[in-house]
Amino acid sequence: MPRLRHAVWLLMLAGCASVPAQRLTLPEPRLAPAAMAVDLALSQRLCIRRTATEQPCEPIEARLEVDAQALHLAGFALGQRVLVVHWDGARLQTQRTPQLPPSADAERILRDIQYVYAPLAALQAALPEHWRVVDRGNERELRHGRTSAIRIRYATMPPWGGAVRLDNRVEGYRLDIDTVADAREPG
User: Fold this and answer.
1) Using CB atoms within 10 A of its CB, is residue 68 exposed (0-12), middle (13-18) or buried (19+)?
2) Rounded to two decimals, what is the model's pTM?
3) Does residue 142 surpass a pLDDT of 70?
4) pLDDT above 50 for 133
5) Which residue of 22, 66, 94, 180 sits 20 to 30 Å from the alpha carbon of 160, by its own alpha carbon?
């Protein structure tokens, strides 16, 4: 059970990172699933760690499915499902095991998925004033004025076919995503 708790903690680190009051609060795009402009089902391996440490992490298995009607993510630790996030564009629903900390935040998980995979125009249209997203080849950056808040690097384009690294500079964590299987072609 201690390994399960450790694995669950790693899965939720991105969702429960604390933000000091003097720092920026990242906007949550809350895009409708159709705005993602894809139809995909991915099996992924996630590695989440605080950027202040370089400790190795135990990968978490995840299944991400997106189509025009819904975004669905299931997270697994040691073969057990520990989290389900379902977004239909109106309601965000979460199911979790009792081992997950109450501070686990499905909103941030949804936000990070959208920052990584949503089309640039859809993201930009959803952002408040003074925020912008810049794409440069295999890199995406979320900026507030001159401040770089999130930097995302893609190993391949389109991004869902390979490795992705999200550096969240505001909340102090790094998320590495490795796609291990693609069940449907992006549409």
Assistant:
1) middle
2) 0.82
3) yes
4) yes
5) 94
